[in-house]
Design a protein that fits this description.
Structural class: alpha/beta
Number of domains: 2
Strand order of the largest sheet: 7-10-11-12-13-14-17
Low-confidence stretches: 458-473
CATH class of the largest domain: Alpha Beta
Radius of gyration: 22 Å
CATH architecture of the largest domain: Alpha-Beta Horseshoe
Number of helices: 18
Distance between the termini: 54 Å
Strand content: 15-25%
Length: 473
């Protein structure tokens, strides 16, 4: 069967993200004998024209549309992507059966299939499910018994078991070079599944709680392909936590060192699972930036958010980075259950003490169905069972309420290393567009070392006043 793989993601802030999910689907579909073509809307100026053109040249038997995110998860500057995705689905309707999938779709699959108007949906990991669904569609067989598959009008589905063997993504259908050129990194996944209990997190819902590891030789082969075939020299490991299990992370680093791979990289790190041996192995293997999913500097809030570590572990990993001169950043979430002005100030105080290159802060926490935060929001009356969560809804502790954004803004503006996307402090679309004119490798927060003072929407204000395009000092 001829199949069109369509990536609906158009968000390029803070950088364009390669459609890894569709790349993982491409291998099994090709192995099943299907002919594949792709359309990636990330770099397309006129999606309608591109969709009409490819459908005039190519008559697919099935169209698979991947939805990476449904909104930008930023408060108060939230923006939904669903209107654009709905338009994409509408333009494809009638050309072939439309299958929706992707991490964004799997967060609320029943609601999204109905809202967007697709014919079928794949919930969760799709590598096995998609071949079974396409086979059923090609023969006219019923899809009702297929785990992980929704059909139009369905109000429930059979839960699919997480796959055991994670394959290698087939990237050749997509613009690897452009993603690397404009994003400064190539993304790579080594594992799936999350056994932790952060109250807001969707990883356990999307990937299950059982951790499944890719064979290390396969990961090394993929890195060699990125380096050799696509001239990639910087990688972002997209695992929810790179350093768990600890033994696997260290073994991977040792394999990277032994392979003498000429590549730098970064990853999301849990402060709990770090030894000096792993830390040094990561640096020797090319890691030049550590991103910590810290969430708070308050002991009370760390507990309330369900984190597996405490303040002392945050201090310990930060001191390791400082001792070895390695760039590091902490991600902080403000407004969770129990947040007060005091706990907000504890987070600022800890970050002042640790002095990371950057602190990326978010105000409010997006509520997703099935998470502990969702249940708490229902219990507290923040939302009801009838609340439409397709539109971004955020939890903000009643103790800080409407004052949260002004408090965080006031404090962040006194510090030059804070980035708050939702409040556009040291980050805006225009600023990022200007930065991309420079050759940047790795996460953009590393450039915070060159920022002289905190600024609110500096690039947008310059554009609106016609004062030209300022550059980083």
């Amino acid at each position: 069967m001829d199949i069109l793989l369509l990536s609906a993601n158009r968000e390029r802030t803070p950088y364009p993200v390669f459609p890894l999910g569709l790349a993982f689907l491409a291998g099994p579909l090709a192995a099943a004998g299907h002919s594949l073509r792709s359309l990636d809307l990330c770099f397309v100026e006129d999606p309608e024209a591109e969709i009409r053109e490819i459908l005039s040249l190519f008559s697919p038997g099935v169209i698979i549309i991947s939805i990476r995110n449904i909104d930008n998860v930023s408060y108060p500057g939230a923006r939904s992507y669903l209107a654009g995705v709905k338009e994409v689905v509408s333009l494809c309707r009638g050309a072939a059966p439309i299958i929706l999938g992707g991490s964004g779709f799997s967060l609320m699959p029943v609601e999204l299939l109905s809202h967007l108007g697709g014919d079928y949906g794949i919930v969760g990991e799709g590598e096995t499910v998609v071949t079974s669904l396409v086979a059923a569609l090609s023969t006219g067989a019923s899809t009702a018994s297929l785990p992980g598959v929704l059909a139009k009008g369905d109000s429930c589905y059979i839960q699919a078991e997480p796959i055991d063997a994670i394959g290698r993504p087939e990237r050749n259908l997509f613009q690897v070079e452009r993603y690397f050129r404009e994003g400064g990194m190539a993304n790579l996944q080594t594992k799936r599944g999350c056994p932790f209990s952060c109250i807001y997190c969707t990883y356990p819902i999307l990937e299950g709680r059982r951790v499944r590891l890719r064979p290390i030789p396969d990961v090394i082969a993929e890195i060699k392909e990125l380096v050799g075939k696509y001239a990639v020299d910087y990688i972002y490991f997209v695992d929810d936590i790179f350093n768990f299990p600890l033994e696997y992370a260290e073994e991977l680093c040792r394999a990277m060192i032994a392979s003498a791979l000429k590549v730098n990289w970064t990853a999301f790190i849990n402060p709990q699972f770090m030894t000096s041996g792993l830390f040094l192995a990561m640096i020797e293997a090319g890691c030049d930036a550590f991103e910590f999913g810290t969430d708070s500097g308050s002991p009370v809030m760390l507990k309330n958010l369900g984190k597996s570590f405490g303040v002392e572990e945050i201090r310990s990993v930060s001191m390791l980075c400082r001792e070895h001169g390695v760039d590091f950043a902490h991600y902080i979430l403000f407004g969770g259950p129990g947040e007060t002005e005091q706990t907000v100030m504890e987070s600022f105080a800890l970050m002042d003490e640790l002095a990371p290159v950057a602190v990326i802060g978010m105000t409010g926490i997006r509520i997703y169905p099935g998470t502990p935060l969702h249940r708490r929001a229902l219990e507290e009356g923040v939302i009801t069972a009838a609340t439409d969560l397709l539109d971004p809804v955020f939890y903000i502790s009643p103790a800080v309420g409407e004052n949260l954004c002004s408090l965080v803004t006031e404090q962040a503006m006194q510090r030059k290393n804070w980035v708050l996307p939702g409040l556009e402090i040291n980050m805006s679309d225009t600023m990022l567009s200007a930065i991309r004119h420079f050759t940047v490798r790795g996460p953009l927060w590393k450039l915070m070392k060159r920022v002289g003072r905190s600024r609110v929407r500096p690039m947008r204000q310059a554009a609106e006043t016609g004062s030209g395009v300022p550059v980083l000092p």
